[in-house]
Amino acid sequence: MGPVMLIDKLADGVVRVQTPIGPRYLMLSFLQRLYFMWMFRHFPILPHVVLSGWQRRMIDDLCSGQRFVSMAYADGMEEAPVIGTIERRPVVGGDALPPRPAAREGASGLPAEVRQRS
Q1: How do residues 17-72 score in pLDDT, each as one tens digit?
Q2: Nearest of 118, 113, 115, 92 to residue 102 by alpha carbon
Q3: What are the distances in angstroms from CA 101 to CA 57, 58, 113?
Q4: What is the DSSP letter of 105?
Q5: Domain-by-domain residue ranges, the chain?
Q6: Radius of gyration for the chain, computed over Cα atoms and rounded to the nearest angstrom
Q7: Treating both helix axes as pointing N-terminal to C-terminal, what angle do 30-39 and 3-12 enclose, rounded to 10 degrees?
Q8: How distant, in Å, are the alpha carbons of 43, 45, 72, 111 from that of 104?
Q9: First to last CA, the chain
Q10: What sign results for the dihedral spanned by CA atoms 78, 81, 85, 90?
């Protein structure tokens, strides 16, 4: 990443938040942009679940504060540079395994499988 790109991100960068209804872009203060540039220094995309509790609260506060902006600058000619992307999609219930049936116990109190091996 060149120095011009870093300066652009620091001056006008936004953070993209992937939501179930599509991407949203967060307007940030200078210090927030600086922090997010550090946060995304190794990865351009971070899932919400890998962030620390403090980072998740900050993202949640920014999103709940309706700090969303349009991707384009005010003049509509250029796009704002994206500092990084937070994937904030809901966790879909995975294919959970069905519960194991309880082992039937006989008179000895041992499961039937164990008694058969004896």
Answers
A1: 998 888 989 989 999 999 999 999 999 999 999 999 999 999 999 988 877 777 66
A2: 113
A3: 40, 44, 13
A4: B
A5: 3-87
A6: 24
A7: 130
A8: 51, 49, 65, 6
A9: 68
A10: negative
Output DSSP code: residue 47.
Answer: E
Task: Please tell me the distance from the alpha carbon of residue 117 to that of residue 72, in angstroms, as a whole number.
Answer: 71
What tokens does 34 get?
Answer: 């600086």
Taking the CB of residue 10, how many other CB atoms lie within 10 A of it?
15
Residue type, 17: V
Alpha-carbon span 55 to 30, nearest angstrom? 17
Neighbours of 109 (CB within 10 A): 7
Asked if residue 92 has pLDDT above 80, the reply is no
Give yes or no for a contact between 78 and 87, defined as CB atoms under 8 angstroms apart: no
Cα four-point dihedral sign 42, 48, 49, 55? positive
